[in-house]
Amino acid sequence: MASIADYNQMVADAADEITIQNTNSVIAPAAFSTITAVTLSKAGLYEIMVAAGYGAVADVVDNMELIIGGVSGRIIIIPVQPVVNAERISVTLRVRVTSGQTIAVRSILAGAVTSDYRATIVAKRVLD
Fold this sequence. Notes:
CATH class: Mainly Beta
Shape: elongated
CATH architecture: Sandwich
CATH topology: Jelly Rolls
Strand order of the largest sheet: 1-8-3-6
Largest sheet: 4 strands, antiparallel
Number of helices: 1
Low-confidence stretches: none
Helix content: 10-25%
Order of helices and strands: HEEEEEEEE
Structural class: mainly beta
Distance between the termini: 28 Å
Radius of gyration: 17 Å
Strand content: over 45%
Number of domains: 1
């Protein structure tokens, strides 16, 4: 049987766990336009999952990037195939961030007219 202290610790641990998610789409984005982003309120080690792709109108291959912490913070070019309605999990990684850092998916080159860029970011804090 768990003690009150054990119960209080479980509640505190649950309150400390943070998962944040955002999904968005942008039609014909300019070069380096944010498709979707999350801002992390607590520092720590996060597991980041990114799903990216195109909606009703596809564009060129590999034209999205994952950035952490601003304009010069590129982590990886996201592998995206020019397939209509094919948003897939493209990247999963763990990264340590500071409080207030932003994780974003953005276009690299300008998107073609009517191209439909879509992305989802899920960030789950796994350690302080």
